[in-house]
Amino acid sequence: MLSFFRVIKFAFQDMGRNFSLSLMTVVILILMLLSMNTVIVVRALTQEAVSTVKNQIDVSVYFVPTATDEQVEEVKAYVSSFPEVVSLTFLDKDKVLEQFKETHKENENIIASIDELDENPLGPTMIVKTREPSDYQKLITALTIPEYEDVIEAKTFGDTEQAIDRISVITAQVEKAVWVLSGLFLVIAFFVIFNTIRVAIYTQRIEIGIKKLVGATNWFIQGPYIMEAFFFTCVSVASSYGLVYMATKFLDPYVSVIFGGQYFLTNYFESNILLLIGSQFIVVLLLTIITSGLAMRKYLRV
Amino acid sequence: MIKLTNVTKWYTKKSIGVHDVHLHIESGEFVSIVGQSGTGKTTLVKLLIAEERPTDGNIEIGGWDITRISHRDVPLLRRQIGVIFQDFKLLEKRTVKENVAFALQVAGESTRRIRQVVPKVIEIVGLGDKIHHYPSQLSGGERQRVAIARSLVHRPKILVADEPTGNLDAINTQEIVDILQRINEFGTTIVLVTHNKDIVNQLNGRVVTIHDGKIISDKKEGKYQL
User: Fold this and answer.
1) For the residues A160-181, what does the mean pLDDT come to?
2) Does residue A154 lie within any of the structural domains?
3) In chain A, is it the N or the C terminus that has fewer CB atoms within a 10 Å radius of its CB?
């Protein structure tokens, strides 16, 4: 226990007496964490953008006005049975007519023509959303069968097929690019931190040798470095998270213009705070401790 | 106290540190080991403090066979042998007091005992007024005295001094030799490695001469002869 307290004391003494080196190490760690958090923000924004685009895509299935309730129910049940279908909204004939009148309320001729008819000329409509834009083609193919030729009047997917295909390709590419970018940043972060710690240990190699010569155990020599790594990790993770939090507060008004809603980034960081801080803390701590151990190994052989 | 039996140390096949060294040093002796540069004197010191392992032969320190000492036991050995070097090997970012205290702290001594012992030892080497100075604020002789204080603080039975006066002027050299003699008078075995002819002749004690890694002379009351 006594040696543990001495290790803590030496750690703080070393940090104070090598203040510029300690500061440089913390600054490098903060910069690397900021880079990693930037990638996290970009990923969150990309995912939100992709999700927003996907949510705006759907397929409308227009039934013929003469379609019976049984026929409509059969199609509804058939579509609902697809695991790819996320939601299905059904508008009956009256609702469709109401929406039609609302849409064309400025055009008196159309409204007058509709009113002159005794019967509602519009059939029911079904709006279907699937998990992925690529699922729409599968759904349309499934509905283009002889049994439903007399029941379904039109499907809007045909008009937007190319756009949906394009969006599918773009979202897949963006996600891939973000993964590659994240991996690249992690590798860069690893090497920068690795070399920063190595330099810090290298400058103290003579001291390490002297400590060994006067009878210090490896634990007594390594202990302060482990404590320093822990302290550097705490300070850098806390500082970078504080900076990221301020940055998200600043960026949120601009982000809300694109995605609607408020505080998207702040909410994202707040709701994932334990995961983000915890994972970054563990990664940086392990990295600094392992790097210190590797860098020190050859100087401990005295 | 120190027993080397047929000790050989090869670094590479062409680089031999010491060859077939046979040396017994009794408790309380003051032995000077002399020889030209590169003859194996420092290798001998490294073998005594287990910084190097012998290629062949046996080494005993105070009855403890350290020939194949484990890495875990090396710190224990070094806490029992005081060592001083030509380049002092002080911790530059620690004060005189902290440098001396460090040797006790690594051994797990209580803070109370450290507070009692450290100022006394520093006083003995004549640096009581510079206890809070950093090594960079001291002269060469003063630095060597700090190193001696550090090596003495846990009362070792053996003190190994590897060229302790190599970086010092004549006055400081004499001061260091006087301190080593006083330590020896208290019963500590001293192994002084040097190529300073004047010191060896002045001590008029046992002189072991090494040449090309071999002991070529071992005299009870010897002089510096090469």
Assistant:
1) 72
2) no
3) N
| Domain identity same for A70 and A198 | no
Test mutation, B53, B61, B89, B152, chain A, max A CBs within 10 A: B89
Structure tokens at B6: 């047929």
Domain contains A117: yes
Cα–Cα distances in angstroms (integers) from residue A291 to residues A184, A226, A284, A287, B145, in the given order = 19, 10, 10, 6, 37
If asked whether residues A249 and A271 sit together in one domain, one would say yes
DSSP string, A80-134: HT-TTEEEEEEE-HHHHHHHHHHHTTT-HHHHHHHHHSSS--PPPEEEEEESSTT
If you average pLDDT over every residue of chain B, what do you get? 92
Domain for residue A265, yes or no?
yes
What chain B holds in terms of domains, given with CATH numbers, is 1-80+157-226 (3.40.50.300), 88-155 (no CATH)
- Do residues B15 and B37 touch, judged by C-beta distance below 8 A? no
Interface mutation vs chain A, best among B73, B76, B93, B136, most A CBs within 10 Å:
B93
ipTM of the complex: 0.83
| In a shared domain, residues A181 and A297 | yes
Which candidate from A3, A207, A215 shows the least CB-CB separation from B78? A215
Mutual orientation of helices A273-297 and A218-259 as an angle, nearest 10°? 150
> Which of B73, B80, B100, B106 would best serve as a mutation to test chain A binding (most A beta carbons within 10 A)?
B106
Q: What is the mean pLDDT of residues A73-95?
A: 87
Mean pLDDT, range A184-193, rounded to an integer: 77
Which of B49, B83, B106 has its CB closest to that of A220? B106
The shortest CB-CB distance from B78 to any of A2, A207, A214 is to: A214
Residues from chain B that touch A208, judged by Cβ atoms under 8 A, are none
Strands (E), A179-291: none
CB spacing of B83 vs A213 below 8 angstroms: yes
- Chain B residue numbers touching A216 (CB-CB < 8 A): 75, 102, 106
Counting the structural domains of chain A, the total is 2
Go through chain B and tell me how many residues it has. 226
A244 and A100 fall within a common domain: no
- Tell whether B1 lies on the interface with A, counting CB pairs under 8 A: no
* pLDDT band at residue A141 using 50, 70 and 90 as cut-offs: confident
Does residue A75 share a domain with residue A36? no
Specify whether A186 is located in the same domain as A280. Answer: yes
Residue A142 lies in a domain: no
User: Within 10 A of B192 (CB to CB), how many other CB atoms are there?
Assistant: 27
Both A115 and A237 in a single domain? no
Torsion (CA) A227, A229, A231, A234 in degrees, nearest 10: -140
pTM: 0.69
CA distance A32 to A236: 9
Residues of B in contact with A14 (CB under 8 A): 93
In this structure, are A46 and A63 located in the same domain? no
